[in-house]
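User: I'm writing a short report section on ligand binding and want a predicted complex to refer to. Could you take this sequence and oxa(dethia)-CoA and write out the structure as tokens? A short remark afterwards would be nice.
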Amino acid sequence: MGITLQGLGYYVPQDVLSNFDLEKIVDTSDEWITTRTGIKERRIAKNETLIDMAEKASKMALEDAKVDPKDVDAIVFATITPHFSFPASACLLQDRLGCKNGFAFDISAACSGFLYGLEVAKGLIVGGSAKKVLLVGAEKLSEIVNWQDRSTCVLFGDGAGAVLVSSEGEGEILASVMRSDGEAWNILYAEKCGYINMRGRELFKLAVRSMEEVCQQVISTVGLKVEDIDLVIPHQANIRIMEALAEKLGIPMQKVYSNIHKYGNTSAASIPIAMAEAYREGRLKRGYTVLMTAMGAGLTWGATLIRF
Ligand code: UT7
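Assistant: Sure. The structure tokens for the complex follow:
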């Protein structure tokens, strides 16, 4: 069964926090942040909630797909910064959008949330529970960042991305591999109502190694060569991770989409924001073979290969 990413949308808050702004808050420099991460600035939701951002991204995706909210069968919302403990952010979004039919729930898989969510959406469609799934990745990470910790506060930003996943259309999910390793949970975590804690250097190496492994697996499952991949949309955690991964896979950086310089790491929102932006810029075109990969807290990681 073909599964198409029929409509794409994204939203980032207006407020920009630059590296120079951060120099005034913690002992850091634009030079350090730029060379170590590739980030120049990030967006901060000062006056907007998670649901406000998700609503704007979702409306753009639904308009792009030309789908009425009442025809959405399920909403899958990937986030690690839910609006309430309960009900699910997906239910709050359902109310805003007027998706009167179907069901809505959240998933928590950190930076892999969008890819895990796509796996769930695929399962719902293949299993016959839904024909149209609104998949959202949205985060308000500024709420769980310790603004006195220079090792983490320079990395993260807020934003939302959304995709209308449909059983109709020409697209296809060619292969996917999802993994997690709960034994390594304490490399990256936030306690309830607490701040982000991260052992960055360790995570860096694991990220490159793990994403390379699952990318190789999906490519070989389908029997493609790396030359057949038109675009790579990786999770935007660090430009050096993306460069190391591309080098290991033998894919030129021209085929790797990155917007990390503008938005930093937006966790579950990063791939759908990048995807929607690439689409609007004409970098992502219908018929393209697209490789997506992510790694984050859990640890969780995965790779998904699609025909867009
Ligand atoms: O999205 C989930 C997945 N996340 C990731 O995959 C993140 C993976 N990790 C990384 O991207 C990188 O490890 C970081 C960007 C987090 C850190 O870069 P690094 O090159 O690994 O730096 P480091 O942690 O080894 O720190 C190097 C130095 C240290 O100083 P000393 O010990 O060498 O004197 C840090 O204290 O840089 C210092 N440092 C900073 N200096 C200025 C750490 N943060 C900063 C900062 N500004 N913001």
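A remark for your report: The two ends are 14 Å apart (CA to CA). The mean pLDDT is 97.
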